[in-house]
Specification:
Blueprint (H helix, E strand, L loop, with lengths): L25 E2 L10 E2 L7 H7 L1 H15 L2 H22 L1
Parallel strand pairs: 1-2
Helix pairs in contact: 1-2, 2-3
Length: 94
């Protein structure tokens, strides 16, 4: 799997829905990343590693970043997607 340190609006699933400028890429700092952009401090130091190991976790963490640092439209869309993801996981857990 290719490491994807992009986060917030620059990461799946928001990147496909929100057009951004190339210099407006949000990234987590990590030694193996393949993107350059605006540094976003992860919630925890281990977030980039956890995101690399688990694609579902990656989406949840990126959406959480979008809720925290995004513009109004990004926050709204990220919140909706985050709620859907959590509901999906809850249904699967039952």
């Amino acid at each position: 799997m290719t490491p994807q340190p992009s986060t917030a609006h620059s990461a799946p699933p928001l990147a496909a829905k929100i057009a951004g400028e190339e210099e407006d890429v949000a990234v987590w700092p990590c030694p193996y990343g393949n993107a350059r952009g605006v540094w976003v401090s992860p919630l925890y130091k281990s977030v980039p590693d956890a995101a690399q190991r688990d694609p579902d976790m990656y989406e949840l963490l990126a959406l959480a970043d979008a809720v925290c640092i995004g513009r109004a439209r990004e926050r709204k869309l990220a919140g909706e997607l985050l709620c859907r993801k959590v509901e999906e996981f809850a249904r699967e857990a039952v």
